[in-house]
Amino acid sequence: MKVLVIGGGGREHALAWKIRQSRVVEELFCSPGNAGIAEIADCPPLASSDLDAVADFVSRQGIDLTVVGPEMPLCQGLTDKIQARGRAVFGPSAGAARLEGSKAFSKQFMRRHGIPTAPFEIFDDVDAACRYIDTHPLPMVVKADGLAAGKGVFICETHEQARDAVQRLMVQRAFGGAGKVVVIERFVTGREASFFVISDGVRVIPLVTAQDYKRVFDGDRGPNTGGMGAFSPALHLDRATISHVLEKVVAPTIKGMADEGSPYRGVLYVGLMLNEAGPSVLEYNVRFGDPETQVILPRLASDLVPLLVAAAHGDLSNARVEWRREAAVTVVLAAQGYPGQYPKGKKITGLDLFVGGPDLLFFHAGTRTGPGGEIRTAGGRVLDVTALGRDIADARRRAYEAASRIHFPGVHFRRDVASDAMELLARRGAHA
Ligand code: GLY
């Protein structure tokens, strides 16, 4: 088979790494890729926003399966374009990708299908939004309807903050057309969790659980990022909670999308809030998580490609997955200043100290190869160090040991990835 991966971050490196191991794959392409991906795949410089250029490449090269990493091309309809050429794609159609591409759509969808989510209203008028804000309790959350690279969500403690958020989104258009419509919802407290399933439009296969860290600094302080680390399994997602989420969230989502004429084929990433009232949905994402993928795929013992092909062809009935028992931890090494402005082109050293192997993996996120063959930084999140271990503590120790030996000027990373998982384990041990 010939496989094309779209994207160039740590998630796509993890996907390409796993796909490369497949017995059924002969040729692997990844666009745009990065320095790490270029070691295992051909990286044609296609602009993923140029859907026709990507679809032309797929036809010309006879690509058997395209795996789309980021949400933007999915929401823009890349899957539909490639399918129209008679080629298989792993990733939902534009209609199904509205679950992530439009918060207004997804919230109304949840209301229509009785899927638990915070109470909300939708506004396309600034004055109406402000009147609503003034008469509703705090805190509240103001969200841009469209894609805003994870920056379009404002948790507001005062009515003034909420009105400011509306001004920024709807009047100043800080995120362009994404803020034309806003969703205002009640703030829900609890513990966040991410849950992933692969679906063929009817059936689902749950993946192992994972948890990420969105804030830039230890102790969940500082601004939100794309994700600064992750671990798997997510111990607070116990079996009872998983069954509940499958029954009350995932099943009605998949059935609802099929009933509404947009069957969901791909990976569905459900962002949840867990509290005493039970799980409720914060948001849907229509793609693998980054960096959750960097801890999930190393735990997958079976071949990923037949699973993706089966989902793309709409028939998971014979698909099987096997998981390794080991736990995994990934630590994201970021550039100085990230998630704000950051420099590029810094030389990365220390990668050659490691032989690597199946239990210690370096997924490149924002890297490029310099003129002398050296690896240089090229993004905010630069490198993901993933380690597998007999348990979370072991994986964590090995990931941090490796992370501390890699260097580039200004490198920073969180020191507390998976520490809450270890505290939870210690508490359970104390009560055993
Ligand atoms: N880890 C957060 C995300 O992928 O959106």
Write a concise synopsis of the structure shown.
This protein has 432 residues and is α+β, with helices and mostly antiparallel strands.
Q: How would you characterize the overall build of this protein?
A:
This protein is an alpha+beta fold. Among the domains are: 2-94, Rossmann fold, CATH 3.40.50.20; 119-186, ATP-grasp fold, A domain (Dna Ligase, domain 1). The chain has 13 helices and 21 strands. The strands form six sheets. It has a five-stranded antiparallel sheet. It has a four-stranded parallel sheet with strand order 2-1-3-4, with helices on both faces. Helix 5 (94-101) crosses helix 6 (103-112) and helix 7 (126-134) packs antiparallel against helix 8 (159-171). 48% of the residues are buried. The model has no long low-confidence stretch (mean pLDDT 96). Bound molecules: glycine. Glycine binds next to loops.
